[in-house]
Every structure is written in C-alpha cells, then in structure tokens.
From TrEMBL:
Upper classification of the organism: Eukaryota, Metazoa, Chordata, Craniata, Vertebrata
EC number of the protein: 2.5.1.75
Protein name: tRNA dimethylallyltransferase
Gene encoding the protein: TRIT1
Catalytic activity: adenosine(37) in tRNA + dimethylallyl diphosphate = N(6)-dimethylallyladenosine(37) in tRNA + diphosphate
Taxonomy, superkingdom: Eukaryota
Amino acid sequence: MARALLLRPPPPLVVIVGATGTGKSRLALQLALRLGAEIVSADSMQVYKGLDIITNKASPQEQALCKHHMISFVDPLVTNYTVLDFRNEATAVIKELLASRKIPIVVGGTNYYIESLLWKVLIGTEDQHPDTVDRRAELEKLDSRELHRRLSQVDPAMAARLHPHDKRKLARSLQIFQETGVSHSKLLQQQREEEGGGPLGGPLKYPNPCILWLYAEKAVLDERLDQRVDAMLAAGLIEELQSFHRRYNQEWVASDTQDYQHGIFQSIGFKEFHQFLITEGKCTEEESSQFLEQGIEALKIATRRYARYQNKWIQNRFLRRPGPNIPPVYGLDVSDLSQWEEKVLEPAFQIVQSFCQGRPPATKPITPEPGPEGDKHSRRTCEVCDRIIIGDTEWKAHLGSKSHRFFLKRLQRLPASATQPGRGCPERGEWQRDEEKEEGPVEPTQPWL
C-alpha cells in the first residue's frame, strides 16, 4: 500500500482556456463536482468586488456548490493590483490544494494570469521591498520619454525591446533594476537558461499540467457572444453599471480624473457605457436611448474582439511557439451545445482522469504548428505613419494594415513639400475606428516585461 501511494502521480493542475463565451466556467464547475476539485479563477476583473454581471462571475449558487478562489476580494478602488500579486496569492492556493491531493482547476480569460501560474516568467521583488508600490508610483509620474531615457542608460537591451511609449513596462523595468541592482534583461535571460526553460521564459512550475482548450466556429461564437450580452442586459447589467458609477466613478468624472486603464474600471462593458452614464438625467430620453444603444453595440464589438485576441494568444503561446516547456493541449469543440455531454464534458473528464492515473489519455493532444519566423524584438520606424513598430510579425502586419495603406495613399497625393513624416495625417477617424471594431489594437503577449 505504501509503495502504491509513493508511485501515484501528483494531482494534475487542470487549466481550462478558451475565448470568452465558450463555456469555460460551466466545464470547470462540472469537472470540479465530479472530481472533488476546487476552482481557481484567473480573471483580472473578477478579483475585484462589484460588477458581478459584467465580469461574468460564478453565481452565489454556483460558488455554494464548489469552492471558488480568487474572486471578489480586492476593493474596487484599488488600481495597483498586479499580476505579481495574483501569482503570489493564487500559487499559495494551488500549493495548498496539491498538498492535500485535491485537483486545482484554473479557469479564466486573462492570459497573462494563466501564464504566471504555468511558467516561471515573472521577476518578483515585492518580498524584499515593501515600498515597491511607492517606488512604482514615483516612476509612473515621469513621462514615457524620460523613462525610456533612464532605462537606456541602465538596461539598453531592454530599452531596445520596449516601445518608447509603453510607460507601464518602462517603469516596471526601471523598478526591477532599482530594487535588485541587476538589469531586467539579464534576469529574464537567466530565467530562460534555467533547466527546462525556453525562448519564452523559465520552466513549467508544475510537473503534471493538463490544458483543455474550448473552441468554437467563429460565426457560432459571435452569435453566442451577442446573445450573452443580451442575457446580461436582461439580468440587470444597466442597473449594475449605474449603481457602480454613482458609488465609485461619478466624482472622478466630475473632476475629469476618471481612469479606464487600471483596475476594475477597465472592464469590458464599463467604459463602453461612459457617455450613457455621465449624461444620466442631463439629456432627453431620446438622447439617453441613443447613448444606451451605442453602448450595447460597443460592448458587443469589444466582446467579439476580445474573444479573437484570446484565441490568438492560445494558438501563439501553446501551438506555434518554440521551446521544450510547452505542455500538451487537448482541444474540445463547443460549437454545438446540444452535444456538450458527449463532445465536451465526457472527453474532458476522461482526459483529466488519465492524468490522475499517470497514463496517456485516449484523446490525442493538438499537434503544434511551426511558429512564425523573425525577431519579435526588432525595432522599426514607419516614416509614412510616424510610428515605431516592435517585432517582425507586427511590422509585417502594420505594412498590410488599413491605416498604413490610408496614410501611404494620402502621402502619394500630397505635394513634395508636404511629405514629411506624419504631415497631413488626420486624427483617428472613422476609417481607423472601423478597423479596430473587429480586430482592435494588438495587446501585449508578455505584460510582465
């Protein structure tokens, strides 16, 4: 008996990934109930108290059925809760669950939160420096040009990798150097050179990761996401937003200090209704209805765009990247919800059971594809658009973008005296907003840099 216990594999770390609206939370709850597991949310907005509908938190009834961690414990006025904070707290939860031989099921849509749990990719200094927040706040008071100048002096390699306007990352790299005395780029290189490390970071943190990817056909998912927004509205989304705005955001708007880039205020769905919320009781009923409809449409567009970004991350991080530290990924097609039991739940349960028993699952993992070639840290300046582009892939995408083609055609029509970089280029207009409606700006794949 003792020998059998020694030979038992460690419980797997189950991670459910997929675009918003694919049923990740539903599968996590069903698996947890069948396996006696507990759920660890990896959603950067669900850590905050409030906005339960818009952030799609598990209902009180669902949380009563199974223990959920990392939900609704940060004050909504806190704006400096970081991925490091999450990593440290969630890792402690996972460690305790594994020690008691319970299966942790990580589920959520915040990609860099999931990465922080799977791989050794973050440079943490908080334990040694309790005044970290104050130091970071002081750095963020500087403009991006000054931050880039300072970083170039102490860590030219990292300064060359980061965009000169990426204030948050520039401040983070300077903070790391100030607190450790070692450049950020050198620390990352040391991490990659550890046993089991690779081009994207250090080794996997857990010996038995089980990755389940829920995916759906694009048209099916788009329709489902629109229906999800409609369901949120029926559940009281507008009342939730109005109440939250009055309690936490109204005074900031009045003083023109609202911030939709940090904390819970960056939730998809809150800033989209900004015009509707700030004009409540100050405009005609017809105007209010118009602002409401605009907010609903903006929410649907942002949700579809975010779903595409999530799927791109999964494909790039797990299926098209080099290195020995990429775990196998098991794909589950959720396009047809009428076949959920046979095509999603049962295969997922069998896969996790196989990991628990230390044997290969009958379901084969997805075969990785060759990753894109090129230097992701190359730096180019587009003289046509007067923009700095980081990365070969991003440069290629920029050259084919609608905005670049627009500026190029405009430049070709201008007289020679007006063809200086950036001359004659309008502010962001309808053509560019239309482009971003579906694709949106490229989000960082490694926000810890």
